[in-house]
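Tutorial handout. Part one gives the primary structure; part two gives the three-dimensional structure as tokens.
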Amino acid sequence: MDTKKFEDMLASELADIKATLTPMSAQNPQNPSDWEAKFPDINTDTADKMDVADETEEYETGVSINAILEEKYREIEAALTRIKEGTYGTCEVGKEPISEERLLASPEARTCVEHAS
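Part two.
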């Protein structure tokens, strides 16, 4: 299997996720896989109540999106580590090869289709 192709796919996806997370989240310098959604910088004393409500709603949406993207970010980092370790493409449960079709659909997959559930 050509792991270079998957490494490039994963690196590109990781960069896309990081580009999405950066404006709405802060990355923990001690743990680059940890992202915290940023609360909007709004002065609640002087701001219109509707603006505060809108910003709060946007923050809550950002927290949800942040959690999903952060998990995907970690999965991709783990897949890149498996490539470096030479274990990429091997099912973590049954130790059999993961099909290339599955990896093309989900390059961060840890298991074969049979063991995915």
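Part three, for discussion. The CA atoms of residues 94 and 115 lie 8 Å apart. The two ends are 24 Å apart (CA to CA).
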